[in-house]
Write a structure and sequence with these properties.
Residues 63-439 form the Circularly permuted ATP-grasp type domain. This is Circularly permuted type 2 ATP-grasp protein. Pfam families: CP_ATPgrasp_2. The chain has 510 residues and is of the alpha+beta class. It has a domain at 9-184 and 309-333 and 398-497. It has helices at 12-21, 23-40, 68-92, 97-100, 106-110, 158-171, 173-177, 187-197, 221-231, 287-292, 316-324, 341-349, 375-387, 482-497, and strands at 43-45, 54-56, 59-66, 132-139, 145-151, 209-212, 234-236, 241-244, 247-250, 257-258, 261-264, 297-299, 331-332, 336-337, 354-358, 367-369, 392-396, 402-407, 410-419, 421-424, 428-430, 435-438, 454-460. The chain has a 5-stranded mixed β-sheet. The longest helix is centred in the first third of the chain and has 25 residues, at 68-92. The radius of gyration is 23 Å and the shape is globular.
Length: 510
């Protein structure tokens, strides 16, 4: 909605539909969606709260809708930002020109735990570090999009984007048919082509791609198995791979099979016990030696965490100017660095107005939403900031726009963010839209699923919906794929879980 409460034009047809449908029918659709997601097995895991760790992410049946021109502007800004982040990674692990030019403090990069000295002087195959990026965006009531954070390590959530679209086609075929919705179902194909495009030069023939998971105890394991199944590639754990003569092989019933590209969903620390944490039982010994030898590609490259560190985030617009010689299309949220004395003084004096975050936190943990916090909570964070100022950043609580969301008491406004997924190989690829996360609690600004948030389908309209009474158009995607989805997913997960139990060491993704 606009700040004054007016309905945005892309929502005009949806508003008429919702008025005609009524609360009771919408509640029934919400229950059907829950049954559908439970049957397919669309879950995430939380291991820190007791009880059954497997949870359904709440799905709101009212989509978030963007106009085509809005998306075109966003996609241009996203491509620009990802190219700049990739250039930054190439530079800080190489010549470090941006540091020498004084555009970013050297200690912020070189002494950051996200910076891996092991990657110095290394150039990934194709020169691409950030093969898959998830860029979190928020929109203000003034209709301006801001980048909230960059996810360049192992961004998750794309499976929910795809399953949300399938669910909407099944639950609401009539309203989907009245909109020309840009498709997203081709994302797995785009992902596979991108992964193949970064295959090492030593690869001969069609690259063999695998998805490397830490196992079924990982919070995003459903997504790992889903993407492997959708791409038609093997889902493997560390024990399924081995390194010989600086080449990576997969154990199969027909004997060893060489692996060329690994889409790894394991944190840097755990991917190779010979290079990083020696106690890792989910990695592949010798993997980094094979990587450095140019015999295997990893997506994303180890060391990309320095690019999405929240303390580095304020410098991304400067990266765009420094590397691309362009002005940033997308703006950052103004950010205060608590390690700077002046910024720290301002933050401590205004904790009731700011959002304070851990510089290296994720999942909505370690965060203070000042306007909604108690004085006791604010005092606690003040002590934390004084003790370890470099661990914290702060941002103003923006006047975020809202979208209509179905609640127990009816349809009401809720805050959302948007995570588009950007693929970077020989070219940049994006499917229109992304994952919309919604703060289901009234007034809440926290959208993370682990903190009570939910998701929505995200529609990018290829054209305005027809006026009332005009001929309805068929949806651009065929929902029939959902009919076999439950069976194929259960087969995929059954196959994956038979590969053996894995450590719980790595439980979270961005």
């Amino acid at each position: 909605m606009h700040a004054e409460g007016a309905i945005r034009s892309p929502y005009a047809e949806m508003a008429r539909f919702l008025d005609a449908t009524g609360q009771e029918a919408l509640d029934q659709k919400r229950r059907e969606a829950e049954v559908l997601f439970r049957r397919i097995g669309v879950t995430f895991a939380v291991y820190t709260e007791g009880g059954d760790p497997e949870r359904l992410i709440p799905f709101d049946v009212i989509p978030r809708i963007l106009a085509r021109d809005e998306w075109e502007r966003l996609s241009q800004g996203l491509e620009q930002r990802v190219r700049a982040l990739n250039a930054f990674l190439t530079d800080v692990y190489g010549e470090q020109a941006i540091i020498k030019a004084g555009r970013i403090p050297p200690e912020l990069v070189l002494q950051n735990e996200g910076y891996l000295p092991q990657m110095r002087g290394f150039v990934p195959p194709g020169g691409v570090w950030t093969v898959i990026s998830g860029i979190d965006l928020v929109r203000t009531e003034a209709d301006q999009f801001y980048v909230l954070e960059d996810n360049c390590r192992t961004p998750s959530g794309v499976s929910y984007m795809l399953e949300n679209r399938e669910a909407m086609f099944r639950l609401f075929p009539e309203i989907c048919a009245r909109h020309r919705i840009a498709p997203v179902s081709h994302y797995p194909e785009e992902l596979l082509e991108t992964l193949k495009s970064i295959a090492p030069e030593s690869c001969s023939g069609t690259p063999n791609v695998v998805v490397l998971t830490p196992g079924p105890y990982n919070s995003a394991y459903y997504e790992h198995s889903f993407l492997a199944d959708e791409m038609g590639v093997e889902l493997v754990e560390g024990a399924d791979l081995f390194v010989r003569d600086e080449m990576v092989f997969m154990r199969t019933t027909a004997g060893p099979k060489r692996v060329d590209v690994i889409y790894r969903r394991i944190d840097d620390d755990f991917i190779d016990p010979e290079c990083f944490r020696a106690d890792s039982v989910v990695g592949v010994p010798g993997l980094m030696a094979a990587y450095r030898a140019g015999n295997v590609s990893l997506a994303n490259a180890p060391g990309t965490g320095i690019a999405d560190d929240k303390a580095v985030y304020p410098y991304v617009p400067e990266m765009v100017r420094f590397y691309l010689k362009e002005e940033p299309i997308l703006s950052n949220v103004p950010t205060f660095m608590c390690e700077r004395p002046a910024d720290q003084d301002y933050v401590l004096a205004n904790l009731d107005k700011l959002v304070v975050k851990l510089a290296r936190g994720s999942g909505g943990y370690g965060m203070l939403v000042g306007p909604h916090a108690t004085q006791e909570q604010r005092d606690d964070f003040a002590g934390r900031i004084k003790a370890r100022p470099g661990d914290y950043i702060a941002q103003p609580t923006l006047a975020l726009s809202t979208v209509p969301t179905l609640g127990e008491a009816g349809i009401g406004p809720r805050h959302v963010d948007l995570r588009p997924f950007v693929l970077f190989g020989k070219e940049v690829r994006m499917v229109p839209g992304g994952l919309t996360r919604v703060a289901l609690r009234e007034g809440s600004l926290v959208v993370n699923s682990s903190q009570g948030g939910g998701t929505k389908d995200t529609w990018v309209l290829m054209e305005d919906p027809p006026a009332e009474g005009q001929l309805a158009l068929p949806p651009p995607e065929e929902p029939a794929a959902l009919q076999s989805q439950g069976q194929s997913q259960s087969q995929s997960q059954g196959k994956s879980q038979s590969q053996g139990q894995s450590s719980r060491q790595q439980q979270g993704e961005g």
